[in-house]
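Thought: the user wants the 3D structure for the chain below. I'll pass the sequence to the structure tool as-is, report back what it returns, then summarize two notable features.
Action: structure_tool
Action Input:
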Amino acid sequence: MAGMPRSGRKYSVRDSLIYMRAALFVVCATLLFAVPARADEAWNAYAAGIVASNKQAWAEAVSDFRRAIALNPTERAAGLGGEPYLPHYRLSLALEHMGDVRGARAELLESERQGVIGKTKYIAEFRERVNRVKMTAALPPPTQTIAFSSTHGLLPMPQPVPVATRTETEAITMTTATASPQPQTPTPQPTPPQPTPTPAPPTPGPPTPATVASPISLIDQLFANLSPGTTVFDPPPEMKVGRPARVIARMAAAGEDAHITENLPHNAATIVKQQHITPTMSLALAGDAFDIATASPTEQLIGGGSFTEWRWDVKPKSSGQRRLDLHIVAILRVDGEEKQKELSVITRKVLVHADPIGATGQFIVSYWEYLSSTIIIPLALFFYHGRRKAKKKRGISKDGGHHRSGPGSR
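Observation:
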């Protein structure tokens, strides 16, 4: 080795090991710390809530806005595409349309507390709603008013008691007594019977007004006329991350639920008796830890002699004990317009297991460009340079051996 040129030392085995360790360190650091930057899930949920609000699907809008708040509760004046990110304000609008006045007021005041909406184009509408909410909160509870009262002069006034007039006999007697100044002994005469005065008929007062039903009583009457029903919710009890599953919910009116639990995919259904169902019902599935795709209409008719079925394709995003919420919304027609009222929410726990193989494959598919630029290309260059070094070493070894066997070698 004494005749080996000094240039061959830069390609020693020790240098190769150092280079390989550095490359492996880059690989490990990338896998451990380069967590994939997920898309802005909060904004996606917020945008889905705006789309649902435009369709007046208020239950879906409430679910989407609550999911956005769970991911990012801080409102921003500038979001994607120049649209502000106002999940609390949008949620208050959806809750107000669903009749949840208390929840709408809480979200509206939270948006006011953050103070971001004052920098957006919605400030005029926001101020009007805030003033209306504060005035409503300051008023005392409403009391039942009487449509007609005496203070308004609408009740009949008491009629005067009729006074009987003197009879003609009394008038003649008084005239005779007044015209005779000299005392005379009156001749007793029999007093004729006096006629009983006939009282005047009472003057009829204004008619008594009919009682006007309040809007609350009208809605109560609508619900009193509704029939009961049955709801079945069948999510899988266990799932794996990244693997979708079909979730089914069914609803039937009383007397039409004989086959409502047949042919369910998971045989783990939750059965709930509904006190009221309307001819048109809306069911919405929500879960922050799942990607949910609707596979059937959200609003469907109830009846026809059998149950009505809703379907969703659900894919877990993270492992652990997760929950799915089924929102049951009644649709009523009030004053010629369709109104929604959330009747109940059915919650089911789902145990989601990790899927290392699937997660690795999904990671590679989603971020192959990033991996190729940070790992694959450096590794390819590393092996390419290592191969070139090996070739040079083999060439140097051959040249050195030939030199030692020539003349003058020792």
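Final Answer: Structure generated. The CA atoms of residues 23 and 29 lie 10 Å apart. Residues 1-9, 33-39, 139-158, 163-181 have pLDDT under 50 and may be disordered.
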